[in-house]
């Protein structure tokens, strides 16, 4: 049908106005540019998100695939995905607009495989700044970009806490870069492994200090504590929440990975807690790990049966990484039913005037937390040699190096590239709840 010119123009204006609202933070909450509090499961977009990394390099290039997946994610009820690695040098317009049209936001890690901050011999140098900046340059224009992470599970061992100063240096420099380019106030956060011995020090440290330019915009936790039919109290979630209440945590916080798989089928009962009345005053939702079924057995969908990994032309690990997504049952429908019943009510931004202050910077605790208070952050290029240790101050010597709280990705995504995806099963089996 031919529309009169005026109606056509109005239609265009309406479709521009209907662009997805952008996300920013205020106090301890996320808000949309329309003023609604946003839950990763939201008021306008009613559901939480999913970890989405089909291929190690970049899952946001093949728009046919993005369309097939976005459409099923909409049925599942997701309003956000998380992607761990992208190639900043290719075009992502099609996939990003496909997800935008499906009402799905993106949380994106800024690091590439060879630039992530490491807990052993940590450093933060010019090459890392350049790569992180390139990813920010490539994605900042997308309205459905909800936030960036400067790292995923940099610290996985209890003796890695000194590297927190490098994480904070990355936050400082990426926020400064965002602002120097006059990009919108895209929230910049960190995604932590759930390590009991450095809770709540890490989340407080990254938020602490008098200079907001050096603090996180949001904190996120990869937590696999809730397995099967446990409860808010027994799972440890009440404990996680209490640590926020105790300090009046000033930033938004959410689960950047969740979805324990040690009890099957997965019922995702934790979603009712995370998006329910006990937690929504303090938490902003959850990203479920993960979209694709692969060796670690966390998938919500699969693209076909596993094939012999050693056969010629076999996909990595024998798991096809594209095609028509087929729900893994009953997990997929279990999650779908949880999300369908959950619609947390938030506050309107104009009715929210928090008086929050940063928490005190934690003091060093021998054998546990190695950064003593509000120390000067490393400069670009600094490393953690003796001089580095002394200049960040108060480091108290080696903590024990026990493996703690490692989740499927922290280890797995890294291993995919560095070690050819070996050991994912062991990683998944090693997931432990630490209270
Ligand atoms: C940064 O550190 C990495 C890893 O050690 C190194 O390969 C790279 O050359 C360094 N970049 C600069 C500018 O020093
Ligand atoms: C806050 O931190 C930024 C980034 O490190 C720095 O440029 C600025 O001078 C600091 N402000 C104050 C008041 O110290
Ligand atoms: C978990 O609860 C559901 C619903 O009450 C029940 O059907 C299921 O058998 C329970 N699973 C276990 C492992 O207890
Ligand atoms: C932490 O401990 C592990 C083994 O327990 C060791 O391999 C690693 O080098 C230690 N890291 C640091 C930063 O001391």
Automatic annotation (TrEMBL):
Keywords: Glycoprotein, GPI-anchor, Lipoprotein, Membrane, Signal, Transferase. It is a lipid-anchor; GPI-anchor. GO terms for molecular function: 1,3-beta-glucanosyltransferase activity. Its EC number is 2.4.1.-. Residues 1-19 form the signal peptide. It is an enzyme of class 2 (transferase). GO terms for cellular component: plasma membrane; side of membrane. Its main location: membrane. Splits internally a 1,3-beta-glucan molecule and transfers the newly generated reducing end (the donor) to the non-reducing end of another 1,3-beta-glucan molecule (the acceptor) forming a 1,3-beta linkage, resulting in the elongation of 1,3-beta-glucan chains in the cell wall. This is 1,3-beta-glucanosyltransferase. The lineage of its organism: Eukaryota, Fungi, Dikarya, Ascomycota, Pezizomycotina.
